[in-house]
Amino acid sequence: MRSAVPDALVCFLCWVSCAVCVTAGQEPPADPPAFEVATVRENRSGETRSRIELVNARFNATNMTLRELVAIAYPAEGGAFRHASELVGGPGWFNSARFDT
Questions:
Q1: Which one of 17, 26, 62, 85 has the fewest beta carbons within 10 angstroms of its own beta carbon?
Q2: CB hemisphere CA count around 20 (13 angstroms)
Q3: Which of 24, 1, 15 is nearest to 80 (CA)?
Q4: Helices 66-73 and 7-24: crossing angle, nearest 10°?
């Protein structure tokens, strides 16, 4: 059975995970930003905790909603993570479906 999450969302989440890796560093790298592989999977664990890690320019997000991922990808002025409540609209699953990247 296919997931209710559209394929376009998976593509968008791949882009978001790459954007976070690029914008999270203190100084821009000498080479243009690139990535080898980005994996986005729906998390159906039922857990309520989520986690993000950025280690050696590798971004990992576990059990995050799309609203949270977008809030991370587009930080507030000054570079701080935008609070997810600042995002308005989106489909019903925008705040309920959870993903691992």
A1: 26
A2: 26
A3: 24
A4: 30
Q: What tens digit of pLDDT does each residue of 2-41 get? A: 555 666 555 566 555 555 544 555 565 577 767 678 889 9
C-alpha 67/C-alpha 86 separation (Å) is: 9
40 C-beta neighbours (distance < 10 Å), count? 19
Q: Does any domain span residue 85?
A: yes
Structure-token pair, residue 81: 């993570």
d(CA 45, CA 61): 14
Query: Structural domain tally of the chain?
Result: 1
> What pLDDT is attached to residue 2?
55
In which domain, by residue range, is 24 found? 7-100
**Is residue 1, in this structure, part of any structural domain at all?**
no
